[in-house]
TrEMBL record:
The keyword Transferase does not apply. It comes from Bifidobacterium vespertilionis. This is Protein-export membrane protein SecG. GO terms for cellular component: plasma membrane. One of its GO terms (biological process) is protein secretion. The keyword Transcription does not apply.
Length: 82
């Protein structure tokens, strides 16, 4: 069970880093912090609609994996299985 806990913790770290990267890759919608740091200047240089949809799907999949692993780790800890 210790190996399972270590594997799940490694998956959480990788998913967290990947989720952060994927969220930062999204195109800014404007009017927020992205415009303050120059995001408004590159509105036409953004990704296409298909690429943005695929990025959204990948972000949701990684987020669901992250949530599932967090819940699994919490349940294993609560029931003292680890």
């Amino acid at each position: 069970m210790v190996a399972l806990k270590i594997a799940l913790e490694i998956i959480v770290v990788i998913a967290s880093l990947l989720l952060t990267l994927l969220i930062l890759m999204h195109k800014g919608k404007g009017g927020g912090l992205s415009d303050m740091f120059g995001g408004g200047l590159t509105q036409n240089a953004g990704s296409s609609g298909v690429a943005e949809k695929n990025l959204n799907r990948l972000t949701v999949i990684v987020a669901l994996i992250w949530v599932a692993v967090i819940i699994t780790l919490g349940l294993l800890t609560k029931f003292s299985l680890i």
